[in-house]
Amino acid sequence: MAYHFSLSLLLSLLLFTYFPPNSQSNQFCEAGIGYDEVGYGISSSSTKLLIKGGTVVNAHHQEIADVYVKDGIIVAVKPNLRVGDDVKVIDATGKFVMPGGIDPHTHLAMEALNTESVDDFFSGQAAALAGGTTMHIDFVIPVNGSLIAGLEAYEKKAKKSCMDYGFHMVITKFDDIVSRDMEIMVKEKGINSFKFFLAYKGVLMVNDELLLEGLKRCKSLGALAMVHAENGDAVFEGQKRMIQLGITGPEGHALSRPPLLEGEATARAIRLAGFVNTPLYVVHVMSIDALEEIAKARKSGQRVVGEPVVSGLALDDSGLWDSDFTTASKYVMSPPIRASVHGKALQDALSNGVLQLVGTDHCVFNSTQKAFGIDDFRKIPNGVNGIEERMHLVWDLMVESGQISVTDYVRVTSTECARIFNIYPRKGAIIAGSDADIIILNPNSTFEINARSHHSRTDTNVYEGRRGKGKVEVTIAGGRVVWENNELKVVPGSGKYIEMAPFSYLFSGIDRADASYLSSLNAPVKRFKSTT
């Protein structure tokens, strides 16, 4: 599909003012670059691009080739392409040309604890583009249980989008109306996944009965069931225990929801999904306990996807014990960041295929919002950053260290997400016909992360001071150069909603398995009633 600008968008491209990073007003954050919704930089007006001489990397193959882009679509991937003079040429010699990242797990403009996460669908997406992510999938929260009202609210939030996005839908209750609306979401709205929270008692948490009904409905619709796996009842008890012990700071958050509660809920969700015989996606896997349950299920042949997030791979829980509340509270997320032994196990599982793709759970609150819980960790809004940092950190942690290959990097940051959510090869590939969402990564360049220079609106960064090797130097989204020479060139309203069809590859063979199960029952048994 060609990419076209509306008249209003073209006017905004011509009229808004560009503020370089060193002079721009910090209207939305005390530290960090920050920018308003008028736009930032000027998007490349060229509809034709030629990326020359780079190593083009897909999930299963790499080659030195040129990539020709026209009207937002990849037209050709071949060595030594020749094009006309009206084409913008980007030299990628000695660099990797890869599909833009797809973040499967974000929460932009999310309402929680009577506040809202500070990155909206413009600032969060702009930060993503600066870090090499060109699409994300956000979670729609129902309004008073209504999926329709929830989607309408998020459609309004997403009008300022500057890159492509999709939606998952959260389920908080189940009745005939919700069942009907789930079908509408799948068949009319392009949503092919539903999330069930087993935590956050009294707010988002569902019980086993509701989960079972949801799993059955997901199966019938060809939609992927997703779970936040922590035992919410036990977490609630753990929180009360910490408060009774006088542990009210951020460390109480981690202590109240230990790994065994994540493991228990993961095991329960896996077994119920197995009982229904439908695929299951476990979000933000943070512990060995949960990881072992996923490994066991996958070994048995069950369709279970495990998603680590970059904070779980890259950080440990020591920050939660920092004596400074502002520092400690920025690490509060759920499930909690664990001891380093868990992070190393997650890295190993990602490298050997037990875990399939990397998300972020990007949901940021500034230090003022985090301070709502200064006397009670239960009131600290949960969430950390990562949408801008993910691509760099996964490269440095996993590729630079030799744990995964360059092709594996493409798989875990882009292609597998596209396959799971049924948008491959439109997304997640550099092949003729795919959307021109492309990054150019220089493996010899270095990066440094800090809140002064990141593009999120939050005033803290959980990766503060982190340095590494491998930097995204160019991001191309929809055929437009949006990140180059450390400058963002984005416009609100230029992003597209990507509809995702049901029945991804995870559903292949489900019908045959059901038929095999039924034939194995040897039931019902025909019995003769006694005539006496």
UniProtKB/TrEMBL annotation:
Name listed for the protein in its UniProt record: dihydropyrimidinase
Signal sequence interval, chain numbering: 1-25
Alphabetized GO MF terms: dihydropyrimidinase activity; metal ion binding
Organism: Populus deltoides
Domain spans labelled Amidohydrolase-related: 96-482
Key words of the record: Hydrolase, Metal-binding, Signal, Zinc
Annotated catalysed reactions: 5,6-dihydrouracil + H2O = 3-(carbamoylamino)propanoate + H(+)
CDD domains, A to Z: D-HYD
Cofactor(s) this protein cannot do without: Zn(2+)
A single BP term in Gene Ontology: pyrimidine nucleobase catabolic process
Gene Ontology cellular component list: cytosol
InterPro entries: Amidohydro-rel (IPR006680), Hydantoinase/dihydroPyrase (IPR011778), Metal-dep_hydrolase_composite (IPR011059), Metal_Hydrolase (IPR032466), Metallo-dep_Hydrolases_sf (IPR050378)
Entry's EC annotation: 3.5.2.2
Family the UniProt entry places it in: Belongs to the metallo-dependent hydrolases superfamily. Hydantoinase/dihydropyrimidinase family.
N6-carboxylysine carried by residues: K195
